[in-house]
Amino acid sequence: MKADDQDSKETCIRCGGVVPVVIPSYEPEKCLLKLCSQLYENGIRDVIIIDDGSGEDYRDIFNQIEKTYNYIILRNAVNLGKGRALKHAFNYALNTYPNLIGVITADSDGQHSADDIQDCKNTLLRNPDSFILGCRNFDRKSVPWKSRVGNNFTKLVFKYLCGLKISDTQTGLRAIPKEFMKALLTTPGEKFEYETNMILEGKDKVNMIEIPIETIYDSKENHHTHFDPLKDSMMIYRIIISYSLAAFFSAIVDFTLFAITNNLGTSIWFSTGFARTISSGINFYFNRNKVFKSNGNVAVQFMKYILLVICSGTASAFLITRLLEVFSIQVLIIKGVVEVFLFFLNYYIQSSLIFVSRKREAV
Question: Residue 16, Cβ neighbours under 10 Å: how many?
Answer without folding.
Answer: 9
